[in-house]
Amino acid sequence: MNKLLEDPIVLREVIMDHYEYPRNHSLVDDPKYKRIHMASESCIDDIHVQADIEDGIVKDVRFDGVACTISTASTSIMTQLVKGKSVEEARVILDNYFRMIDGQDYDEELLDEAVCMKNVGKQANRIKCATIGWNGLKQLLEEGEKQ
Hints:
147 residues, alpha+beta
């Protein structure tokens, strides 16, 4: 992993960059996109996650809605990490992310900038924020598998 990502100031800067300038932060009106609504009962997070999954490839992932800094940043990072990946590769990334949040072993290289969320698991009230978008994509992948 990039040693800079071990610096708490750099971790905070990555989070703020993705919050202030979220990537893939708009929805498209296209029926090929699967869409899920994710809302938190404990904070303002209320987002829609969309994914275009074709031929086993996550071609595009987008999101929009109202969300806190952690939710917005983590979902923005997630959209970048999985775009262009196979469904299986996306699942491995998701699995590693959830393991990191749970304080278990994970692959830092695979998660890239998402490691900026590595300390979220220490604050129980922020775990839902850091995982809401990731859980949305996980559900979309599971739904796609059932069809």
